[in-house]
């Protein structure tokens, strides 16, 4: 069985797989592409013999709607840890510069892997090493970003180490290869702008032809199976 499930915020991808396994009463289940706990959206769940198709789904193009705040930084590149206020950049100037440099992030690019990620170094996940305060050499990977479109430019009030701050915020639609870290895109965009940047919200809107508007919520899946 192939299921297009909407992963809620603050659930891990494994949480969703475990829930689906329990609801459907299947022994074999997995997902086709991890979403961070703070992200939400399309999570393709494969059960039974369809788990053999995982590689095919992993290769499919992913689409995201990402909201990025400029002017703050975080070691997780998102809101998992309280952001540090770097500056309060002007909205018009920041957005003008951003549009100039966005093309640098399309095509085949090299990304820095977030220190707080599941990528393993000598068999240990980087996030566990980071939480222990251990220093790690910068890890990079090659990914492909097919397109980045600006959907909205606004401001957003965020809690930071210096209290609340109103920062320029841009919403982007991103189409990319599997394995792309949208958190890294936010961080590296902030570096290029010299303002700092963090991901404040992320929705995966598509995995190949599987789209968010067709996804099933976990509570609805539970309801359907209990009938």
From TrEMBL:
<keyword id="KW-0413">Isomerase</keyword>
<feature type="domain" description="tRNA pseudouridylate synthase B C-terminal">
    <location>
        <begin position="183"/>
        <end position="223"/>
    </location>
</feature>
<dbReference type="GO" id="GO:0003723">
    <property type="term" value="F:RNA binding"/>
</dbReference>
<protein>
    <recommendedName>
        <fullName>tRNA pseudouridine synthase B</fullName>
        <ecNumber>5.4.99.25</ecNumber>
    </recommendedName>
</protein>
<dbReference type="InterPro" id="IPR002501">
    <property type="entry name" value="PsdUridine_synth_N"/>
</dbReference>
<dbReference type="GO" id="GO:1990481">
    <property type="term" value="P:mRNA pseudouridine synthesis"/>
</dbReference>
<dbReference type="Pfam" id="PF01509">
    <property type="entry name" value="TruB_N"/>
</dbReference>
<dbReference type="Pfam" id="PF16198">
    <property type="entry name" value="TruB_C_2"/>
</dbReference>
<keyword id="KW-0819">tRNA processing</keyword>
<comment type="function">
    <text>Responsible for synthesis of pseudouridine from uracil-55 in the psi GC loop of transfer RNAs.</text>
</comment>
<feature type="domain" description="Pseudouridine synthase II N-terminal">
    <location>
        <begin position="21"/>
        <end position="182"/>
    </location>
</feature>
<dbReference type="InterPro" id="IPR014780">
    <property type="entry name" value="tRNA_psdUridine_synth_TruB"/>
</dbReference>
<dbReference type="GO" id="GO:0160148">
    <property type="term" value="F:tRNA pseudouridine(55) synthase activity"/>
</dbReference>
<dbReference type="InterPro" id="IPR032819">
    <property type="entry name" value="TruB_C"/>
</dbReference>
<dbReference type="GO" id="GO:0031119">
    <property type="term" value="P:tRNA pseudouridine synthesis"/>
</dbReference>
<feature type="active site" description="Nucleophile">
    <location>
        <position position="36"/>
    </location>
</feature>
<comment type="similarity">
    <text>Belongs to the pseudouridine synthase TruB family. Type 1 subfamily.</text>
</comment>
<dbReference type="InterPro" id="IPR020103">
    <property type="entry name" value="PsdUridine_synth_cat_dom_sf"/>
</dbReference>
